Amino acid sequence: MLCQWANTFLKDGFTIHTTLGEDLFGHPKKVAIFRRDVYAMTNMKEISNGSLVMYMSYLYQVLKKTKMLEMIAFIDPDHTGALACGNPTERARSLAVRYGNGKPGQVFLVPYNSGCHWMLTVVNSGEEVVHFMDPLKRRLITGEWKTIVDDSIRIYNAQKNRKGRKIVQWKNCAGIPEQLGDKTCGLWIMHYMKDIAEDKNQQWSAKWERKANHFYTQKDIDQVRAKWAKYVSQFQQS
Question: Where is the Ubiquitin-like protease family profile domain (predicted)?
Answer without folding.
Answer: 31-196
